[in-house]
Amino acid sequence: MRTGTVIGLAVTVIVALAAIVGIVAARAYATRPVVESVSPGPDQVVNGDTPIRVVLRSPEKVSAFAISVDGRDVTATATRTVNGFELPVPDLPDGEHTAVVDLEADDLIGQPSSYRWAFTTDVTAPPLELAAASAWSEEAEVAGVTEPGADVLVDWGDGTASATADDAGRFTLAPALDEGATKVAVLATDGAGNETVLRRTLRIDRERPRIRLGGVEAWTDTDRPTIYAFVEDASPTRIVARVNGQEAQTTPMSIGFMIETSRLPQGTNEISLEVTDAMGRTSTRTREFGVDSTEKLTNDLTLAPGARGDDVARLTRRLKVERIWKGKPSWTYDQRVEDAVRAFQRQAGLPEDGIARPALLRSTGGRIVVIKSKFVLNLWLDGKLAKQYPIAHGMSSYPTPSGAFLVTEMLENPTWTPPNSPWAAGLEPVPPGGGNPLGTRWIGTSAPLIGIHGTPQSWSIGSQASHGCIRMLIPDVEDLYEKVQVGMVVEIRD
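RESULT FIELD:
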């Protein structure tokens, strides 16, 4: 073989071998173990709960490694993973830290590699201060201060609202809450994932109280009805109830109030309610209703306009006896009856309000009318002549006075005391008994020293025989005594 040929062949082989070595070396370099990524990444902020993860290229070729943080070897805390290493973040103070990963490989290159980066730890929960919420408001608002840039979340179970604190750490959220008291959690999360949670109860009331009345009909057959006010409102309420202008007692219930009334007048009554919620908003409700609980007129009743029935008719009969009412009785307490009541009140010196109260009824409940010329005493009750009794009255030298008087006292089995009068001079008091000049009953009047009494001298009845008093048979005065009362009018006519 020629020398040139041999040399050419050798050169070719050398070149081929060099190419193969180059290719092998390039491939070994390209697949040597190096750090591809780290977590936390460069300049990332993390808290202490985040592990350090190192992802390697060709981790299987690593023959030895070392990891340090701020110069402190933490290799012993690392564990191998499929892709590299993982280890917990050491107990580090808040701030920036430097981590270094050193790798050695058992390959053709055999050259160690190193990776250095910096990250920041923040293990301090963000501060969180909430502005004081009003007890009740129309709309919900959560405002406060936290770490600048922190995320703030309000969670109430049925929904959430979020915002990011501004450069001064301020934030304001308006969660869309339903009316009523709602518990919310306010969560502030900083860039490292640290959290602070505060809990609050927000109270929302957007509307005025709504009132519904119960237990009161247009007419009721009781004069002590129990009325219910059913109140709907998100916030607590207070109530002022007035019946005919007078404040009534209220008792709270689960959904409203029970209103207890005193004895109400027959006729038209009015209840008014004033309900105020925690926001200071007030709703009012007024309703008229009638009371017709009895047809019997007694002197402890009160009759007002709107009353109806026989009790009203009896009132007008009484007023007729008083010469106030004219014509037939009325069974309805209308304007004409009200005017007549006012007229009597004016005449009797009573408060003039047109309502027949017990004082008026007692004044008109009965009347004693003595007609001297006929020697009779007529007892009028409820506007009707109830009974007529024979009497004796004053002799000409001691006449019984005429006029309008009142019953002032009533005594059973009285003691007769001689009056300061010439005809009684030298006489002694007479105790109760058969010989008592007053008999068994004494009905004193506002006429001086003049009364109605029984007499043992029954033969004197029908004559002018007394010293001014009105004498009656003992059984008659006892019967009369049971039907009259103090304050009754005594009219003495000639």
